[in-house]
Amino acid sequence: MPNSRPRPRRGAGGGAGAAGRDRLVARSLQSAEHCLGDQDFGTAYAHYLLVLSLAPELKDDVKETFQYTLFKWAEELHALSRIQDLLGCYEQALELFPDDEVICNSMGEHLFRMGFRDEAAGYFHKAVKLNPDFNDAKENFYRVANWLVERWHFIMLNDTRRNMVYNAAIQKAVCLGSRTVLDIGTGTGILSMFAKKAGAQSVYACELSKTMYELACDVVAANKMENGIKLLHMKSLDIEIPKHIPERCIWRRNCGEFNSCMGTFTSATKDQRRKWKLREVWESDTSRCCYIWDGSRVCRDTKAS
C-alpha cells in the first residue's frame, strides 16, 4: 500500500474558515489511513473524496494512495455485484483525475469483465492516448480490438490492388459529377478519404460499430480530413434528411454483397425507397442490381476483376 500522509496546506484565505477546513482535511486524511490499515476500503475511499473536494491542491500528494483505495474498493464492489456503485466510484474518480491513464485503464478492465467491450475499448484507447508508453493499456486495447474489429478489415486494408481499383473508380465517379457522397458502413473511413481526395464537395460516412466509428474518427483526423468528412455513429436506415445530412447523397460502398450493405437498399420498404427517391433496375449486360436516383445511376455493386 502506498505510504502517503501529506500535510494539509494552510488555506489561502486565512481566518477561522480556512483553519476549520484544514482541521477537517487533516482528520479525514488520518481517518482514511486508519481505514486502509483496517482494510475498510469503502470508508477510506469516502474520506479521500472529502479530502480532494475540500483540498484539490492535494491531488498530487494523495494520487497513488487514492488509486490504491479505489481499486481495492472496486474489487469488493464487483465481488458483491454492486455494479452501479462500482461504476459510480470510477465516474467520481475520473471527475477528480480526468487525465489519469491508470484509472482509465482500470475502468476499462472492469467494463470488459462485465461484457461492455465497446465501452472498455474507449477507456483503453484513452489511456493509450494519455500515455503511449503505458504497456498495460496497450495490451488491453489490442486484446479488446481482437474481439471488436472483424478480421476481414485487415484483409481488405492490406489488399493493395483492391484499394487501387476502388480509388480509381471513386475518382471516375466524382469526375463524372458525383459530388456528394455517403459511405455506408465506413469502417476505417478509407473510401470516404478516397472520395474527398478525389474532389467530392461533401462526404458523409456512417458506422454502427462504436469502436470502428472512433477508429475512423482518428484515421480521418490523422489524415487532416476531419473538416471535410462528416462521420455519423448510427445505422444507415436511421439517417434523416436534413436532420443528419442536409441533402441526398451519392452512394458508394466497398463490398456490398459481402457485408450486406446492399441489403440496406434491397430490404428497404417501399416507403423508405420513396423517401430516398430510389428505384431499382437490373443491368441487362451484367445481371447486377443498381439503383437510379432522379434518373441518374448512382450506385452499383462494383467488383474488382
UniProtKB/TrEMBL annotation:
It comes from the Eukaryota. InterPro entries: Arg_MeTrfase (IPR025799), SAM-dependent_MTases_sf (IPR029063), TPR-like_helical_dom_sf (IPR011990), TPR_rpt (IPR019734). TPR repeats lie at residues 101-134. Pfam families: PrmA. Keywords: S-adenosyl-L-methionine, TPR repeat. SUPFAM superfamilies: S-adenosyl-L-methionine-dependent methyltransferases (SSF53335), TPR-like (SSF48452). One of its GO terms (molecular function) is protein-arginine N-methyltransferase activity. This is Protein arginine methyltransferase 9. The gene is Prmt9.
